[in-house]
Amino acid sequence: MPPRFDLALFTSLNEEYATKPLVPSPRKFDPASMAREAEKRTTRLDRHLDLRGKRVLEIGCGTGSVGRQLAERFDCTVVGIDIDRYPAWDDNSLDRVSYLQGDISSPPEGLGSFDAMFSFSVWEHLVHPHAALERCFELLAPGGRMFLQAQLHRGPKASHRYREIFFPWPHLLFTPQVFEEYYESIGREPRRPAWVNKLTCGQYIEAIERVGFATQSRSTPVTVEFDEDFYQRFHDELSAYPRWDLRHDVLTTVITRPQESSAAAVALDRTLDGLSPEPSTVRKIWRSVPASVRDHPLLQRGVRMLRSRRG
Fold first, then answer.
1. How far apart are CA 134 and CA 130, in angstroms?
2. Fewer CB atoms inside 10 Å of the end CB: C or N, the chain?
3. Which residues pair with residue 219 across a beta bridge?
């Protein structure tokens, strides 16, 4: 008989995993812990983005502590944007640091361009993640880099409730209503799994490439050991998802906006200057170009220009 994914099973699993929680040492939010985390993040960002003296956008800046450290350590000019306004912005402001409340999917006018951007564990909470990537491409200067870290919906910790719920993949097995019932049963305010969009790692990569970014590095570390026994107990439900997706919690990638003078753009300029061969040859050349290059926004724009000239 298949299991009933109700409050009784939820409670039983949580009691079973109480001595072996999915996240034994959850992230802490006291000032000392947050300061240490900000220092680690700034060092990591400079290693990937080479930030000294650059204009930087932080997406989902929270209290703004990372931006302040970047400005102090690397002489950056930092703009932080967040959907919420934090009182700590007043304390973390400097001459080279500013914060604004807004949605990166439709940012305020007049932001200008940035040499670098970064975002930690924000993209999964965006309602319009594809539009946000497009806006970032527009705001990033040619040759600029972006560090993006996003939590993945099918990972074992994606419910974001691992401080109270100790077993893996609860959000894939139980409805939000059962989550609420559980919290009420332990005397807490009812809570659902954190709202996250359901983009997979593959969908992130596809969206990044479609917008026009080039990937410099990418990793999907396994942050917790895959629980094979648990997976087999609920195989009928969990096997609906690829095991790869179930293993991975996070995507970390460094992407760049290609220089306007890329090889593809130069070749296209020559074509537009009247050096194009006969149409049959053009088609052969076009078919030999990789799809990732053909779909690049710069090349597509040139193709549209060429078509309009041929009219």
1. 6
2. N
3. 252
Residue recorded with tokens 């539009």: 131
Tell me how far the alpha carbon of residue 199 is from its chain's centroid: 10
pLDDT tens string 224-241: 899 999 999 999 999 999
Bridge partner list, 253:
148, 218
Which pTM was predicted? 0.80
- Can you read off the two tokens belonging to residue 203? 């969908």
Least Cα distance to 210 among 255, 245, 251 occurs for 255
The residue assigned the tokens 């999917």 is: 105
Residues of the chain with pLDDT under 50: 262-263, 266, 269-270, 272-280, 283-284, 287, 291, 307, 310-311
- C-alpha 146/C-alpha 138 separation (Å) is 12
